[in-house]
Amino acid sequence: MLAVFDNTVAKCPDALQSPHSAPASSALKDGFLANHFASLHPGSVTVNLGTSGHISHSLHNQNPFLPRLFAVVDDIFCLFQGNIDNVVVLKQQYGLNKTANEVIVVIEAYKTLRDRGPYPADQVVKDIQGKFAFILYDSTSKATFVAADADGSVPFFWGSDSEGNLVLSDDVQIVQKGCGKSFAPFPKGCFFTTSGGLRSFEHPLNELKPVPRVDSSGQVCGATFKVDAETKKESVGMPRVDSSYNWSSNY
C-alpha cells in the first residue's frame, strides 16, 4: 500500500526531514511515486485525490497472514493491512453487519469519531486489538487518519519528500525512492491525524519526542519518536458546543 499526501493536507514532522537527504523529485509530481509503485506491483490500483495526493493498493506479494484491504465509503478512502482480533466485538459496537471486514470497521470507527464526538481518538485506536496498520483519507474534510498497532506487527514506514509531502507505505524501498534518507518506521502504538499530528494512543497524556536515526555511514536519516515520560500534555476541558459542531478538528 502507498499514500502520498500534499503537505497542505498532512504536514510531516520536521524531525523526519534529514539534512543529508539527497535532492529528489517530488513524490507527487507527474505521479512519480505512484508510477514507480505500479511498476513494482502488477495489477495495482491508484486513486487520484486531486490536489491532496494519491493512494495506491496492490495484492501483489502480500503476506497471507497480514492481508491488504481497500475500501471507499462515503468519500472516505482506507487502506488496511493486517488483522483485527476483536473484529466481531467492534462490528457490534459500530452497528455493522456480519459481512463487514476490518477496513470497513476502521472507516466506521473514524466516522463515529468525526460525527459523534467527543470520543477520544486515542481510545478509538486503542479499542482495535490485533496486528494492523491503516491509512485513511476523508475527501470531504481533507483529513487523514493513520495508525499502527502497539507492537509494530505490520511493516509500515513514513517519510518526507523534497517538498515536505507525506509518504506512507508498507514497502520501505518505495518510501526510500520518494524520500531519500528522510524516512523512518512509523512509530509503534501511535496515530497521526491532519489536525492533531502524531500522538501515542498507548500514552495519550505524554508528549512524543524525536530521536534521530543514524545509518551505517553515520548520517542522520529521519527520526523515530518515543514517548517522553517526563512531559505531560496540558489538560484541556471539554468545550461546550451545540449538536451541529464538527468534532473532526479536535481529534
From TrEMBL:
<dbReference type="InterPro" id="IPR044828">
    <property type="entry name" value="TSJT1-like"/>
</dbReference>
<feature type="domain" description="DUF3700">
    <location>
        <begin position="2"/>
        <end position="227"/>
    </location>
</feature>
<protein>
    <submittedName>
        <fullName>ALUMINUM INDUCED PROTEIN WITH YGL AND LRDR MOTIFS</fullName>
    </submittedName>
</protein>
<dbReference type="InterPro" id="IPR029055">
    <property type="entry name" value="Ntn_hydrolases_N"/>
</dbReference>
<dbReference type="InterPro" id="IPR024286">
    <property type="entry name" value="DUF3700"/>
</dbReference>
<dbReference type="Pfam" id="PF12481">
    <property type="entry name" value="DUF3700"/>
</dbReference>
